[in-house]
Protein: Response regulator
Organism: Paenibacillus hodogayensis
Amino acid sequence: MNLLLVDDEPLIRKNLISSVDWQKHDIQIVGEAGDGIEALAKIEELRPDMVIMDVHMPRMDGIQVAEMIKDSPYKPSIIFLSGIREFEYAQKALLFEAECYLLKPIKSDELCEMVEKVKNKIWREKYRDEYSNRLKRQIAENLDVLREQFLNRWIRNEMDAGALAEKFAFFGMDLPSDAYVLALIDVEQLQDANRSEEERQMLKYTISDLARKVTSHQPDRILFVTYEEQLALLLTGDHTDSGTVTDTCTSIMNTLSDVLDIRVTIGVSRLVRNPGQLPTCFKEAREALNHRFFRNGSSILHISDIRVKQEGLPEIVIHYENLAISLKQGNTDLISTALADIFVQIREQPSLGYDYVITVALRIASSFLSVIHELGYTQEEVFNDGPNPYIELLGQKHIADLQRSVETVSETIAAFINGKKSHKNAKTIQKAKDYIESQLSNSELTLKLVSEEVAMSYTYFSHLFKQLTNESFSDYVNKARTKKAKELLESSELRVFEVAFAVGFKDPYYFSQCFKTMYGLAPTEYKKKHSNREGGEL
């Protein structure tokens, strides 16, 4: 920190220099002056942070110097010295914002205390000024971002006219006061997860730039990007009549669609007269956008044209329990037909509204998911690491995509249940096979007996057994008995009729027929041939 000493007596200046350890106080004496005129020149040249100056000096006194520099942009802090105890001088010194008024002879400790106090004040002011200037620069550099944040808050929260006027003045904007219409411009491609962040930002900038060019003839329009990455267009004053609003939105839609080959949907609010009602406009524009899934291609949706579902309008009759039962039974064809019929009815009644349709879709999904829990499984088992079906449904913007999402939920659950059933049925049939193997000698082994053993109805077991083994129950048992008989003929001394009875055949003649059909030889021939072969080997 730099210090200038001003006194008409050289000895006093010398004593001031020697009586204080200025280096210890981090202060450098950059110059001296012997009168007020010389002091002014030194202040102009050296621009010191602090001046210790005598009041009474020739040609120009200290009070006059303070008066002349009081409006200077680099005005230093002044500590006055005087040998005269006069209230008038002290009063004038304070008038020109002097830091203090010390009487000669000066005590070094008193001077040091005052210098330290003034130095700290200078540092505080410097820091405050630097911080303030830095903050002002940052605000100027980020004014567009701050403006966009304010506009996003405005359309979400009610503000009184006074607060809005102050905000508009800060951002250098004129606040219209007679009419407001808000349009939200939604571009599907901005939500495309396959696009890189760089591509998304470039597309967003291009969309904003094109919309600004289209509306450049409307200087009082306000255009900004919302937190949801939709483009908000606020039309005011003379540009809020329905014809102008439609023309403006059509120009934007056509330009974006033609130049960028993208689908554009614009939701338009009603006209309001109070700027504090912009949150209502925002809700209406968003509600209008929600109806885009009833449309194909780019479109403009005015909230005033959308008949939102009211009490008393006919609802679609949906038998949610029947859908769940069909899914539980694996009747996917019936489910597919029922869902197609439901969505045909929805398309025919757009007046049902977005919220109603989404609720229907969620209820259908809920009825499907209830089947999972009834069967003792969890949602995580069925969908693995896939998206939550409810979140998936809520994210759909078009009725076709919504229908497909509901169908996907049913198909995923059906595939899971069928897979589990297949595994369970395979285990059941294997259990039946094991039981049959253990009961081959039982001539009373019947389909009914085995179905009871595996706890399954006679008819369903018969159907399932044939489905999974590709042969009837009786054919399977006869083959198993014949195979077992072959083993006994090869390994035992039993006669043929004894073998037949041992494997459960009641009629030896029938056994002989079955054996010959399967192995090409009668049991007696097979036994004789097998015995001869063994004898030859011995």
